[in-house]
Amino acid sequence: MLRGGRKAPGRGHAAPRPDRPRDPKPPAGPARPRHAQTGGSPPAPAQPLPPNLVVLGEFGRPHGLAGELRLKSFTDEPKAVGSYGPLTGSDGRSYVLTHLRQAAGDQPDLLVVRVEGVTSREAAEALTRIRLHVPRETLGQPEEDEFFLTDLVGLAVEGPDGFAGRVVAVPDYGGGELLEIAVEGRRRTELLPFTKAFVPVVDIAGGRLAIAPPEGWLDEPTDEG
After folding, report:
1. CB 60 within 8 A of CB 109
2. Cα diameter, the chain
3. How many domains in the chain?
4. If we measure between CA atoms, which residue out of 107, 105, 15, 1 comes closest to residue 54?
């Protein structure tokens, strides 16, 4: 999924089905690459999560005092996130969504939900930033020219002038999916918007993608020099 669970239809070829993870959105505003953020990561699980999980949504901040909270859904039909049964959280726990409704405002993928066993604002607040997953096999196989964003993790990155790296994550900080790339010779990772302009070639079968980063993307000196 893209960020774990959405599905990308080969950059616009096949249309996704209503209950499948949806296509990535282009970044809002100037598509300016950023360095990887470290402060907003979801809670780490006590044990590593199984590698076959795909992200379907992410809890946001509490809503009201009775345990409701916001949820950003990554499915084509936002409320379909509640139809997959128990979901595995990024903290390793299981969560059941009971009541889902559209949140106020103009973001169709933002819901207000209740979670089984969560009855106070304090309990809801503890869930903020937890991502919700289902086993990959639950979603079936991607169709032709489609792939899950999670398939991008681990791909070799090829760029101009012999640039080399590897995709380590596909985060979304609110403006669309980004590729977090571990660059050879650098300790910190770099972020690049996952758009056709910056990532013209995605070869899942070949284990690689080609990037066309903007001028100045790697102007800062490397750790080696």
Report:
1. no
2. 56
3. 2
4. 1
pLDDT of residue 180: 92
Query: What is the pTM for the complete model shown?
Result: 0.61
If asked whether residues 88 and 176 sit together in one domain, one would say no
DSSP assignment, residue 139? Answer: G
CA dist 57 and 4 (Å) reads 9
Residues ≥6 apart with Cβ < 8 Å to 39: none
Angle 145-32-199 from CA coordinates, rounded to 5°:
25
At 120-149, the pLDDT tens digits run: 999 999 999 999 999 988 887 777 777 887
Reading the block at residue 180, the tokens are 């977090």
| Beta-bridge partner residues of 13 | none
- Range of the structural domain that residue 99 is part of: 2-17+50-139
Q: Which amino acid is at 114?
A: R
| Residues 128 and 157 occupy one common structural domain | no
- Long-range contacts of the stretch 136-143 (C-beta < 8 A, 24+): 136/52, 136/53, 136/54, 137/52, 138/54, 138/84, 139/5, 139/7, 139/20, 139/21, 139/54, 142/7, 143/9, 143/14
